[in-house]
Specification:
The protein is an alpha+beta fold and 97 residues long. 32% of the residues lie in helices and 16% in strands. The radius of gyration is 17 Å and the shape is elongated.
Length: 97
C-alpha cells in the first residue's frame, strides 16, 4: 500500500516505530531455510534496526517526479520477499516536496 503524507515527517521517529513493531512481532522476523531433510526450518532473525530507504525526488520537475514515483511503486509491487532472509515487512520513503 502507498500512503501520501502532507505533514513534516520525523524520519528517525518513523524508523524507531517500525523497529519497535518488528521487534515486538516475531512473525515479521521469521525466515524459512531448507533443512537437511529438505523440509523448511523456521528461523527467527535478530530484531535489528528496521531500514527505510529514502529517495529525494523534490528537485525533479513534476512530470519526471510523477514518472519516478510510478516506477518505484511498480517495482515495489512486484518485488517478492525472499522467505529465506527478508523481513516480512518493508517500507520506502519518497520525498516529493
Amino acid at each position: 500500500a502507498a500512503l501520501k503524507l502532507t505533514v513534516t515527517l520525523n524520519q528517525d521517529a518513523l524508523k524507531q516505530a517500525f523497529s519497535a513493531i518488528v521487534a515486538r512481532h516475531e512473525s515479521l522476523r521469521t525466515c524459512f531455510i531448507g533443512g537437511d531433510d529438505g523440509e523448511p526450518i523456521q528461523v527467527l532473525q535478530e530484531a535489528d534496526t528496521f531500514d527505510i530507504p529514502f529517495t529525494d525526488l523534490s528537485t525533479l520537475t513534476i512530470g519526471i517526479r510523477e514518472a519516478e514515483i510510478a516506477e518505484v511503486i511498480a517495482k515495489e509491487a512486484v518485488s517478492a520477499f525472499d522467505l529465506s532472509q527478508d523481513l516480512m515487512l518493508r517500507a520506502r520513503l519518497l520525498k516529493v516536496s
